[in-house]
Amino acid sequence: MASFQPDCSAYELLTVIGQGLEDLMTVNLARYKPTGEHVAIRRIALESCTNEMVAFLQGELLVSKLFHHPSILPYRSIFIAQNELWIINPFMAYGSARDLISSHFMDGMSELAIAYILLGVLKALEYIHHMGYVHRSVKASHVLIAADGQVCMSGLRSIFSLIRHGQRAKVVHDFPPYSVKVLPWLSPEVLQQGYDFPLGTSKSLGITACELGSNGHVPLLQRQARHGRLREAFEKRKKNERGEKFGDEKRMDLFCLGLLVDLCVSYRGRKFMDVLLAEMLLEKLNGTVPCLLDSTTIPPEELSMKPSRSGADSGICEGGPGACGARHSNGDPSTASSSAGGHPYSRTLSPQFHAFVELCLQREPEKRPSATTLIGHPFFKQIKRRASEALPELFRPLTPITSFDGPQAQGSTAGGLSGLESGLGHLEVDDWDF
Ligand code: ATP
């Protein structure tokens, strides 16, 4: 690992490229003065962190020292400067996969590019599982892409060791803290506080695949949701499920109620979002199966509607993929076309991609394949080259940010740094249509 000085005066802070950790963390693009190299600095205001948060961060730093893999974002230096924790990472010039789909591939990223990205994620997960950990925060904003096309997983903060008293635990009863934003990606069993290794991660991978394949839409996180549906979902579950699925209905009610209270407490002033998140959780616990959104899963009459009126925004296909319409792709990824000016989901994704997502999103955790098995899935047969050779080509005409003149970088078809920032607000209440 190249050594970077643990001294803040060795870095020139340029511009803010991201935020996280409940807005306690700012991500800056910076120049490392001794070499001129560009880096990303994650700065965390320690004064605003609770003791519990600091302990949580210490866990991340420990893990970062243990992990060395080309598909995991490396930590170049970690130190404290002016009451802030500074974490120096390489600057990933394409930003996150989430940034890419929310700023540049609004009508869909090519399926081949998605395959490269998901393969990179699987390689990272395979390594993490091999090391005896689970990631617990797999989502497109934690998948970063370097200028040379290298795909790296970040989000090490939520990583959790499965080794307890020298033994690998099969189930971990622990919910990732400070992770309200990641709830839509978690599997039902995680939400029920039992974490099945390594299968829960595959479920998050399936949701991430939907996010990438469905133009950034996160399943079950509806924009058109109404508050009344929260009550409906509660009632439906009470009437129909009778605790059969969850074993102990009382525990589930208490859990959901507790979660709702947690959401309200941790997101004071953002109650609408709280309710929508709680609603999403209930939908998930009720067994609703998300799927990729395309011409095979959205009824033709919906595809002819204006996108804002289409129920496709729900991301829910009750009967599973294929139930809402016949699939008519020939399986050639090149046929997956973007909808120029039409409905954003009118393209047709390959049956292999649908099959991959179905495998990851199976309700029963024991049926979900491990990362190693998924790497051999037919969906990845289309990959013929290294990501570093293929991805920059597939992203064209988009180019990574390489010019950093002035306080706001210019000259990149990536839309400059504003492009990197724009993905962050996608969960904000203002963006939602009530
Ligand atoms: P969350 O609140 O979702 O948990 P987080 O605290 O994990 O977020 P990150 O996802 O690590 O925060 O960073 C937030 C965003 O900052 C990323 O999605 C990405 O847009 C940007 N970012 C972070 N690290 C880098 C990097 N090394 N290079 C380029 N952009 C980065």
Give the averaged pLDDT, no decimals: 71
Spatial order of the strands in the main sheet? 1-2-3-5-4
Largest sheet: 5 strands, antiparallel
Task: Find the count of extended strands (DSSP E, 2+ residues).
Answer: 13
| Quaternary class | single chain
Strand content: 5-15%
Order of helices and strands: EEEHEEHHEEEEEEEHEHHHHHHHHH
Give the proportion of residues in helices: 25-40%
Number of helices: 13
Q: Can you list the ligands bound to this structure?
A: adenosine-5'-triphosphate
Instruction: Give start-end ranges of low-pLDDT stretches.
Output: 193-197, 221-231, 240-254, 261-273, 308-340, 406-434
- Which structural class do you get from the secondary structure elements? alpha+beta
The rounded Rg comes to 21 Å
| Cα end-to-end separation | 49 Å
Principal-axes shape call: globular
Structure description:
The chain is α+β, with helices and mostly antiparallel strands and 434 residues long. It is 33% helix and 13% strand. The chain contains 13 helices and 13 strands. Helix 3 runs antiparallel to helix 5 (199-213) and helix 3 packs antiparallel against helix 12. Mean pLDDT is 71; it is low at 193-197, 221-231, 240-254, 261-273, 308-340 and 406-434. The protein binds adenosine-5'-triphosphate.
